[in-house]
Amino acid sequence: MLEKIRDGSQGVIAKGILVLVILSFAFAGVSSYLGSKSDVPAAEVNGDKITKAELEQAYQSERARMEQQLGEMFAALSADERYLESIKQSVLERLVADKLIDQAAAAMGLRVSDEQIITAIKSEPAFQTDGKFDNDRYQAILRQLGYQPQTFRSMMRVDMTRRQLTAALVGTEFVLPGEAKQLAELQGQTRDIRYLVVDSAPFLANASVTDEQVKNYYDTNQGQFMSPEKVSLEYVELNAADFAKDSKVTDEEAQAYYDEHKTQYVSNEKRLAAHILIGPGSDEAAAKAKAEDLAKQLDNGADFAELAKANSEDTLSAEQGGKLDWFEPGVMDPSFDTALFALQKGQHSGVVKTDFGFHIIKLLDVQPGTTVPFADVKAKIVAQLQEKKAVDQFYSLQSKLADTSYEVPDTLAETAKVVGVEIKTTPMFSRDDVPAALNKPDVVKAAFSDTVLRQGLNSEVIELEPNHVVVIRMKEHHDAGTMPLAEVKTDIAERLKQDQANEAARAKAQELMTQVKAGATDVTLTAKTKLGRGAQDVDAAIVGKAFQMPTPSASPVVDTVGLANGYAVIALDKVNAAESVSDELVNALKQRLNAQYSEADYRGLIESLKANAKVHYPVEG
């Protein structure tokens, strides 16, 4: 809602950048006005405190926004507490930035009058009805949001005061037309190149690595061999599908169910229909009159089939005297369906209108609905009863699972005994390689939670799927750390061999590059004309290098570039200007550059204010 109030800001880009500033204030809510206090604040900015209550409210608002935006993806991301902590830290930095701007605005004497606030509220579309301010609507929206009018006006005052400072900065940014056009022309360039890939694979056979080299690499690059935090779990699982396999259903139970629900096993009546169709065409009144005339002829004893052959515009059925097909209730257009199932065998209807035109319908024959024999549906009934018994058993055991795992929280043995299942275990796993059977965000979050890892307690009941739950507990836990040399020795040796092969490929590429520069004709290169930046049929490293090379003059520019497994020699023969640059592209680039410049201005302002401020993040101790 507050975003809309910024519609009067200077320029589209200014409004976009101001989202960063104003939303953070809106997320923080009204706690600052209500005087929320905490013994240890989340941060202090030049002596002004940002309370933990403010931070928590802003964090929860940001989390809700991201959850709505990312959906199921956020559920997976939020299983990692470190990810959530990073979000909280970014929210805190945003609150610090808000406080810095508030202080700078106050120091500059920026103010917003009551009249300006009233004008802004009255011009807010959310508070208007038919384009005019509606006080009842205004009050209703504030009540819905949980704001008192005075509190909301205070928020508006801070919001609008901030905008005086930020809009003056980001609203003055601009991009020259020639600047955007030049960038568009650069992006539209193509290049004529020739290239040769020197694969490292042939050089691998001659690569050799000693244990000492492996050890030296391990010692100097231990940061590459960090093992993530891992855990193995014990868990008790309840799945209604497993119970269904063992559920016993007698023939008597199945028969009783069939008798009680017999109406479910009656096949629908079917009717064989014929019709005469007169399409509406361009003159609907004339079509209806023709259909009514045909109906009168039928009433006077005319032959339906003959009239259908001579008059029906449904050519396929007309050849068969209007005969269509067997229909169950609800298949045809509702009007057609109602008329057909109201007829007696051999009767015809009056004129019936549908989207296709005007029909006269005749009932040719009837197949009465029949009861499906018990033997034909017995297997289906047994499966249904098995599932019902399984679900009943599941819910009974789930209640016991929840109670026992909570009452005896330091073991799953008692829980497993009560619900009659075995305790299952997992191998060691990290957040990134969870066993498939438990790879659900809620399970991962619980597995690495303080309750399970640090306190060693059973988790709550976690739903994997409908009627499928688990309770987990920690079996073994390894903190993140450096993997032993023995575990990574083979990988290091292969990496060092690949490095040697790549170096040999680089030397070969350098040799070939010298030959190409000298004009050698025995070096075969692959030619590619009008290579674009987004080319998919050439290695991305080659494309990137081609567009970094300077424009050739009298002779080609030749260079090399490293690939994933080897090197490439590249000869740049020609730089082609963009064939066309549309005004739409130039305008789009102007907007993008303006946004980038404005964002840089805003971030520069915050960095400047922060560099000259005393920002303190107290730690409880």
From TrEMBL:
The keyword Kinase does not apply. Residues 268-365 form the PpiC domain. It comes from the Bacteria. It is found in: Cell inner membrane. The keyword Cell inner membrane applies. The chain crosses the membrane at residues 12-34. GO terms for molecular function: peptidyl-prolyl cis-trans isomerase activity. Its main location: membrane. It is a single-pass type II membrane protein. InterPro entries: PPIase_dom_sf, PPIase_PpiC, PpiD_chaperone, Trigger_fact/SurA_dom_sf. Gene3D superfamilies: 3.10.50.40, Porin chaperone SurA, peptide-binding domain (1.10.4030.10). Belongs to the PpiD chaperone family. This is Periplasmic chaperone PpiD. It comes from Shewanella mangrovisoli.
